[in-house]
What we know:
Elements: H1 3-16, H2 22-28, H3 35-43, H4 50-60, H5 73-76
Helix pairs in contact: 1-3, 2-3
Amino acid sequence: MNKPDIMAAIGDQLRALHGYSIVDVETLTGGSITAARLGSYERGYRCPTVWGLYELGRLYDIDPSSLLPTPAAEDQGAGQ
């Protein structure tokens, strides 16, 4: 899995979450995740930082790692 694939998968996960508009997210995170930034994440144009994943996980009451794709079988042996 390459970086564009990971970014697209995160975007898919974010779009699947319901409950807040992108403006709501900006307000509820105190501006740490702006509407423009969240839109970029959702479209796969930007990759969230670890802090961004943490903030989104806290906001949606989910484990931040649930926003990340599961490594494909061929990727799991790549570092060995």
